[in-house]
Amino acid sequence: MLPTWTPVIPAGVAPLYERLVAALRADIASGALAAGVRLPPQRDLAYRLGVGLGTVTRAYVEAEKAGLVSAHVGRGSFVNAPAEHRPYEREGPINLAQNIAPAAAAASRIAEALARLRRRADLSEHLAYAPPAGHESQRRAGAAWLSRTSAYEGVDWRRLICCAGAQQGLSVALNSVLRPGDVLLTEALAYHGLKALTRYGGWRTRGLPMDAEGLRPDALEAAIRATGARVLAVLPTLQNPTGRIMSRARRDAIVEIARRHDLTIIEDDIYGAYALDAPPPFAVLAPERTFHVSGVSKTLAPGLRAGFLVAPAAETFERAVEALRVVAYAPPAFGGLIATQWIEDGSADAILDETRDEGRARLALARQILGAAVETPQSPMAPHIWLPMSELDAERLAGRALRGGAEVTAPDAPVVEPGHESGVRICLGAVGDRETLRRGLEIVAGALSSEVGERSRAVI
Predict the structure, then answer these.
(1) Same domain assignment for residues 260 and 354
(2) End-of-domain residue from the set 345, 365, 399
(3) Residue 262: how many CB atoms within 10 A of its CB?
(4) Strand 290-295 and strand 307-310: pairing?
(5) How many domains are contained in the chain?
């Protein structure tokens, strides 16, 4: 039977691949797709639906796991008989898509931290709403942590706001300085959580060209003149997804432009602790106009949801506190309290040291397996790596890796401005151990080899 199935994808907030699986399930249940029908090739269906190849690939994999279809190498995917609609029992793909720190160092210390909390004199205070910017002990601890780990010397704890993770810190900063319809400048490739915030906030984004150091100053100057934008969101240290680090000269050039055009800088420094030789953050170079965002999710444990936002001045601090109050009423208490306990008693430094050591080993393993495909990392403990390639090659690689059992970051996830750069981000920290990481990286290496082979055959 010819593969002519063209589903109607239901509307909703679920990821597109999940809604595509739902359409497949509905068409099988209604009889529109009979048992044995061959589904269209993934590339053909992606073209007809006007969606990314990675979306269709993920949907086909999930449909197979759910028992809806059976995939046969060289033949395609076929609809199963109804009796066969049962979950396909196998381990999920190896997680190379999620950028989090290895958990072992924190897990070995959490029980002791909880025991120590029982002896804190301020424990019961955390049962009430926190003060508008957070408990003073947590704000002081956050300032000390930024000073120790991110070269943010002289941070004033009185301008620090405790948040439920760096993502909330970004949200608060953006809502403090932008109105619906305003333009936000950022890198052409950026953190996908920032993209989600801009869509939700109704702000227009302009993604700016990059080079080996990240955002280009000339592109920033041109965009300010063209759009009248007054806010820049930037990740200067171990940029996500590329892992690039801005030099001091590059940062100075951007500061000069920002001062000349009265530009506010929102600086995401969540990976600063993994770049020991990075230049000072923008919050040091231009403290009068920089919101500094950081936290402990990439260094201690993401479940703590302890983030820090440092505002540039008294007026912006008050606006940021009000923005937080509107969405959360008060900062969270107990996740930040555990982080504070660890920072105060030295456990946080020990966790970070172990995590850095593990990061070095994992990055070395990735470079050994993937070789020249990896853009040269700018820190020996970088938690993510970048494989530059064309958009089509990136989609193919992600699809092959997923079918092989390893999930990488969706190639379109970081794209703010198409047509500038493309590639695949691989995260090294989410898997539980190095042996699992090795297997995942070898799957990616195999997918890269297949891609090279296909291109060679095409030339012939």
Answers:
(1) no
(2) 345
(3) 9
(4) antiparallel
(5) 3
5 occurs within a structural domain:
no
Compute the radius of gyration of the chain from its Cα atoms.
24
What b-and-e string marks burial along 406-430, b requiring 16 or more CB atoms within 10 Å of the CB? bbbbbbbbbbbbeeebbbbbbbbbb
Please state the pTM of the whole predicted model.
0.81
Nearest to 347 by CA among 111, 100, 99: 111
Residue 4 lies in a domain: no
**pLDDT tens per residue across span 291-315:** 999 999 999 999 999 999 999 988 8
Query: Are 159 and 295 in the same domain?
Result: yes
132-159 pLDDT, tens digit per residue, is 999 999 999 999 999 999 889 889 999 9
Please answer whether residues 246 and 209 qualify as being in contact, where contact means their C-beta atoms are separated by less than 8 angstroms.
no
Q: Which tens digits make up the pLDDT trace of 241-262?
A: 999 999 999 999 999 999 999 9
Domain with residue 213: its CATH number is: 3.40.640.10
Question: Which residues make beta-bridge pairs with 267?
Answer: 234, 292
Residue 192, in any domain of the structure: yes
Parent domain of 419: 96-103+349-459
Q: What angle do CA 176, 179, 184 make, to 5 degrees?
A: 85
